[in-house]
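User: For my dataset I need records formatted as: sequence, then structure tokens, nothing else. Please produce one.
Assistant:
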Amino acid sequence: MRKKYFIAIFLVVFTMMLSSFAFYTYQILYTPNVLIEQDDRYFAIPKGTTFKQLQNKLAEERIVNDLVSFSFLAKLKDLDTNVKNGMYLIKGDMTNIELINLLRSGSQTPIQLTFSNARLLKQLPKILTNSLEIDSADLAPILLADTTAAHYGFTEETFISMFIPNTYEVYWTITPKGLLDRMKMEYERFWTDERKQKAANLGMSQSEVATLASIVQGETNKMDEAPTIAGVYINRLKRGIPLQADPTLVFAIGDFSIRRILNKDKEFDSPYNTYKYRGLPPGPINLPGIPALNAVLNYEDHNYLYFCAKADFSGYHVFARTLSEHNVNARKFQRALNRERIYR
């Protein structure tokens, strides 16, 4: 009887322990332990991160609630020897097993790479890598190397036109070369057969369209009048009249704080000085956006040869067919400008 009693006690204790172990195992595997009652969050694992560093990062950023259970299961599934860098979208109330499987798989979530304004090619490395794992110092030597522009089919002056400002989905871990290849792919995607035909109808290459678009963009931020401005410059190009575009001269001088071009500035010797040299400059003077590019390709067909800022300081321009008309408009703006200075 005594032996049976001890066996019964043992079975009860064993059953309780087994139940507790089963319950704890269930909790480890299937009970939410990640971002408890929190919103989904992006989580970056830099290249070279150790498992210990991963544990610390998960704890410091309050990603994992019970780090012990997570770490125990992570080691069982060999995550401690298989940490993969990347940007992961971690969802609220995930279980340990769900998070571990995500990190082991390396299934990154693409990020949004958005860029727009840049005046110079050398500014692009910092702009393009702002939200990526790669550093601008890693991209700059490749982007600015003497042979890179030619490799992608551009000159050093026109290379900036390969980068079409937009929002793109890319992986956080993309390499410098991978990023440049992606930008070339997006460039080719933008230049559809229809756009290529419109450029051909203008008698322009794709880079020349980008160059003119950069000038239009430099003249106005009102894209609804950009096709009209593009039409002015196209009329001048067709008639062999110098473009006389102030933004090209500012670019040539290299002082972007200049707000007003003086007569002495117009003597500055540079192929970008469109007062001194006819035709388009060697390349874009900024990073032309899609609206500016489309404004050139879909320019307004008219007889205007001149434009001047409106006297109401709205940011829009008034257009003229003759120099005498233009001078009248220019005097109106100058008088308004003088009044503005007086009443300040």
